[in-house]
Amino acid sequence: MGLGWFGAPEHNRWLAEETHALLRYARAAKVPAGFGWIGTDGVVDTSHPVELWITGRMTFAFSLGALLGIPGCRRYADHGVRALSRVMRDYEHGGWYSAVRHELDDDGHGIPVDADARKECYQHAFVLLAAATATAANRPGAHELLLDAMEVQNRYWWDDTYGLPIESYAADFTDPENYRGINAAMHTVEAYLATADVTGDVTWLTRAVQIIDFAVNVQARAHDWRLPEHYDTKWHPLLDYNRDAPAHPFRPYGVTPGHGLEWSRLTVQARAALVARSLPTPDWMLEAAEQLFDRARTDGWRVDGGPGFVYTTDFDGNPIVHERMHWVVCEGVSAAAAIRQALLDDGRGEIDVEHYEHCYRSWIDYAEEFLIEAPGVWTHELNQANELSTRTWEGHPDIYHALQMTLAARMPVWPTVGQALSEGLLDRPDRPAPAPDQQRGQVRRRGLFGRG
C-alpha cells in the first residue's frame, strides 16, 4: 500500500469513525419544526430560525446514515421528511418557506418567520436532494415528497428559455428576482443528479449537464477557470456584484475557489452518469474538471503565508477574504477523490493520479489539525492565522459537507451517494453500478423508482 490512503483499511476506519461521529453530533439539531442551527455550545441556537436549507441538508445526511445502517438515523431522517412534508410547506402558495419559527401552530404546521419572504432556488434544491436521498433509503413519505419537489422544480425553478434555474420569487411565486446566481445553480445540479439516479428519468441528468456546460465549459473557461458567481437575468456575468460585501455567506464578491472544487466534482459525476447510461458524453468534461480543480488549488491553497484555503479571490487570483471555511477543504477532499477515481475509470494509471492523492492527504491532514475540534465537531470558520473566526459563520450549522467528505473516497463516482449506498457500493469505488440497459433488474432498487 505504501503511502496510499485510498482503500487502506485503517484510513477507511478513520473515515467511518468520523462519519459516525458527525451523525451523532448532528442529532442535537432536532427541533419540532425540523433541524435547527447548532451553536458553539453544541445545542440549538434559538436566535436562528429553523431554516429550509439546514433541514434539507440534515434530512439528506440522516438518510445517508440510514443507508449506511447506522442505528438511530432512520428516525432522524423520518423526522426530516415529516418536517419538509408538513411543517415547512407553504400550503397557500406552494413550495416551501425559507424559515419558520421553532414552535408549530395548532395544526402542526410551521409558522413562517416572514410570510412575505422570498422563495429561493438554493433552499428548494435541498428539498429535492433530501427527498431523493430519503427515497433511496425507502423512508416513509419520501416518495411523495420527491414527487412534490419535482413538480415544484418543473413548475417554477427550471427556466427553459436559458436551460438554467431562476434564482428567487416573491412568496407567491410572482416577481422573479432580477439576479441569477451560480451557487443556486450548483446545488440544483447536485439535486438533479441525485433525482436522475433515484427516478431513472434522464431529463434531470440532461438539465444538470446543461447547467454544467454553461457554468464550466462556457463561463469558467472564458475566465481562465475562475468562475463568476453572479449574473443578470440573461445570464451575463456581473463581475463587481457585492464588491462591498466580500464575505457574504451565499453571494460573496469575486471568485470562490471552494465552488470551483465543487463544480469539478459535479462535472466528473455528471460525466460518469452519461457514460454509465451510454449517452453522448462531451469530450471537454474530464479536462475541464481538472482545470477547475487546479485553478482553485493554485489560487486558494496556502497563498497567504499559511495553510488553508482562502474564501474568495478577485479575477486575477488575488485573495480577497482570507478566512478559511471548513466546507472549502471538505469539497477539496471530495473533488480530489472523485477526479482521481474518474481518471482511473477512464484508463489512467496510478502515476497519473498521484497529484490528487497528495492533495487528498494534505487537505485531510489540515482538517484534522485545524478544523476537527473533537470527533464529529467541526469548526466552520477560521481566520488567516487558523484561529476561530465568526466573520461569516458562527457555530456548527450542519454536517453536509463534512459528512460527504468522509464518504468520498469510499464511493464510486457514479451513482450519486444515496443511490450508490442503496446498491451496496460502499468501499467499492472502482466498481460503479452497471448501466440499466446492461443488467436490467439485477441491481437492487429502493423506493418506487427504478432507473430504467
TrEMBL record:
Entry keywords, A to Z: Isomerase
GO biological process: carbohydrate metabolic process
Database matches in InterPro entries: 6-hairpin_glycosidase_sf (IPR008928), 6hp_glycosidase-like_sf (IPR012341), AGE/CE (IPR010819)
SUPFAM superfamilies per UniProt: Six-hairpin glycosidases
GO molecular function per UniProt: isomerase activity
Claim: Transmembrane is one of the keywords in the record: no
Biased composition (Basic residues): 442-452
Residue ranges of the region described as Disordered: 424-452
Homology family: Belongs to the N-acylglucosamine 2-epimerase family.
Protein name: N-acylglucosamine 2-epimerase (Glcnac 2-epimerase)
Organism the protein comes from: Actinomyces glycerinitolerans
